[in-house]
Amino acid sequence: FFNPAYRHYPFPLQRWLAPAPRTEFDFPLRQKLLTGMQRRLPLYPMWLERQLQRDPPDLLHAHFGTTACLYMDMARRLNRPLAVTFYGFDYAKAPRLRPAYIALYRQLFAGAQRVIAASEAGCRALQNMGCPSEKLAIVPPGPQLNAFPFSERKKTSGQLRLVQVATITAKKGHLTALEAFRQALPDCPGMEMTLAGERQDKTLAARLERFIRSHNLEDHVHMIDFVEHQAMSGFLKNFDAFIHPSCHTPDGDHEATPVVLLEAQASGLPVLCTDHFDLPAEVLHEHTGLVSPEGDTAALAGHIRRLYRMNEVDFAAMSKRARQHVENHFNVLHSAARLREIYREMLS
């Protein structure tokens, strides 16, 4: 928003209530209440609509289906085409938490001109919810490659420093990562793992800490707070590989296309992950990392052992392939070009 080509519409009331948060979870209660009441008393959409009536945009693009439900009537009143990008939570978990979204999404699918997902799997999920296939489009996520320069890793056999950077929630698979690490450790002396992330689920965070203590892993596993995104590239240089065993949760939540896996590979880290939703498209098994069946801790432990024992030449080759994969298939410039193409189609 510092680019003069962008126009920002900060809501005065929200700006007065609280300063800018450091993370997505760093919102004071009064600001959360203001945001949560928008479904019943849409103060910001009403204020924004008055701003846009004076200088209407060519189109509206809402991010997250739940947000688009607040703005689809505005798009109709402004007589402007609406695009909406779904990210995973909005079609996997939101309708279970609030079944009213099922009917709202039907209205959204009817009124939106384009419905965007990150992958074919996301498109299939939206189509199963009633979105017409002709409205669906794919725009893969992509990291800023210049923000994650490739750093060649010098890993010898008998060494492995693992890292997971993820908000502590069940779908990220922290417990699976810990159990697989515990199983592999007797065969991998000196191995270490760092878990970095916001403690959104404090109960789960406490459970992870108990697991570490009860299995005497304090010298091998380190839990730290979230890493500022601008510091991520430098932080990742301290490790050999990234681990992220995503899983479905009992309430229906799941990952979609976690960008952190692309950032890790762009920086040269091979990835250990599961065959969960979009992950096999992000991480190519035996090529840019190792992919195990979701929930199979024994298989994940086996992959940890393989990376630990991998020689320098094979590891360096996997590291370089990881970077090349992101450059070829998840380049943010290619995704931006695809989004511009969608905008032109909407306006033609």
Write the layout of secondary structure elements.
Layout: H1 12-17, H2 29-36, H3 43-54, E1 60-63, H4 65-78, E2 82-85, H5 89-92, H6 94-97, H7 100-111, E3 114-117, H8 120-128, E4 136-138, E5 161-165, H9 174-184, E6 192-196, H10 202-214, E7 221-224, H11 232-236, E8 241-244, H12 259-266, E9 271-274, H13 279-282, E10 289-292, H14 297-309, H15 312-329, H16 332-347
Parallel strand pairs: 1-2, 2-3, 3-4, 5-6, 5-8, 6-7, 8-9, 9-10
Helix pairs in contact: 3-4, 4-7, 9-14, 12-15
Describe this structure in words.
- By secondary structure, the chain is of the alpha/beta class.
- The protein has two domains: 12-142 and 332-347, Glycogen Phosphorylase B (Rossmann fold), CATH 3.40.50; 145-329, Rossmann fold (3-Layer(aba) Sandwich).
- The protein has 16 helices and ten strands.
- It has helices at residues 12-17, 29-36, 43-54, 65-78, 89-92, 94-97, 100-111, 120-128, 174-184, 202-214, 232-236, 259-266, 279-282, 297-309, 312-329, 332-347, and strands spanning 60-63, 82-85, 114-117, 136-138, 161-165, 192-196, 221-224, 241-244, 271-274, 289-292.
- The strands form two sheets. A six-stranded parallel beta sheet has the order 7-6-5-8-9-10, sandwiched between helices. It has a four-stranded parallel beta sheet with strand order 1-2-3-4, with helices on both faces.
- α8 (120-128) links the parallel β3 and β4 (136-138).
- The radius of gyration is 22 Å and the shape is globular.
- The mean pLDDT is 92.
